[in-house]
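Appendix B, Record 12. Input sequence as logged:
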Amino acid sequence: MNLKHRTFSAVRWTTAAAGVRVLLQLVQVAVLARLLDPADYGLMAMVSVVLGLAGIFSDMGVNSAYVQRQNVTEHERSSLFWLNVCVSGVLTLLVLALSPLLASWLGDERLSPLLMLAASTFIISALGRQVRMNAEKLLNFKPVVVTEVGAALLGFTAAIAAAWSGWGVYALIVGALVSAFSGTVLAWIFLAKGWRPQWCFRFSDVRSYLGFGSALVGNNLVNEFNRSIDLLLGGRMLGATALGLYSLPRQIVFQIQSMMNPIISRVGFPLIAQLQVDIPRVRAIYLKTLNMTSSANAPLYVGIAFFAPEVVLIGLGDKWLGAIDLMRLLALWGFFRSIGNPVGSLLLGMGRADLSLKWNLAMLLIVPPVLLFAAQYGTLGLAWTLLGSSLVMFVPGWYVLVRPLCKAGLVEYALAVLRPFLLAVACISLTYWIVGQLDDAVLKLVAGVLLAVPLYVAVSY
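Logged structural output:
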């Protein structure tokens, strides 16, 4: 297939994968929120922060460099594979050794065994990561979707079974381990196509990739710290239960992004990488992906913000009613954060991870001190600060990250982002007013969806 046909095929398959993941994630959250306590989610949030920061080093950024590079020799690919495996193995051992200290620093000794178990996902995932990245580089997303959906389904089943058996927070760890293991096995079955790494490693093969990769690692590390600082502060200052009430709505926000944005951004990165010398086409692709991302996310996040009481009551249960206001604020923050994925595809596709690193270093000087002050006002203080920060950084983000690479103007950039958002606000606020007299939460939410979806689609068209 030519590039256009491969692109549309990739979008179709990533869309199918997102649909299945949406269903699985919604069912898993709805079931586990009733079987587990807020404190369990608070513990898992702290584990996720540690693993997220450590996991940035798991491939040294070379897999993204591999996708961005157009001519890769067989020796280079094998050396990159073994570098990824060795670094991930060392990282696993390091987290195992530091788990007691990390648990002590975070103020909860229950974290130590959780961290030890979860650390094994590094080496498990590393064994199949490059095989999957190669398929994505070729825009061959059909088998990628098969492996991801299969792994998600197995991890979902394992987590539900463990929670039903009374394993508590360990159910979340079991689900992650099963998903990582099955994802690697399925990747070798469906994606490898007979390829096997050569039993050799030469530093000269990977040296040129480490330049791009080191900038990407530095950028991702700073970005992950900026993204997770609210959880770190919440864990130390607010306790596991309060953090759980905050982290589950936050987790839902990120799950929506992880389900919706890859439909476009995972295709956008390799596509922009292939066309990086043609700036007008890169600009057109970026603005289109930005508009599509905003159009897909806006009704979801705005809908959650308006119907937060119904979403929490139906989706999570009575013991999560204290998270309603947090759900509203974090949903609005989630929308503005979601538009950052196309920027990431643009930066990586153009080989400018260094520019992203400079931006995130600047944010590192601003965000943590502000959140440290906001944490004194509890979880609502954190949520309000995240939303305010995303609004303040909207124009500077365009000026520093977008304008230099694809020459997109502020007006066309703002229209691509804000037009779908404002349309969603108009349609859903009208719908909310119409169904506002209904008392039953389920009936109110269902009626709202049935009215808002066709209205938004029609007005958007």
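The two ends are 30 Å apart (CA to CA).
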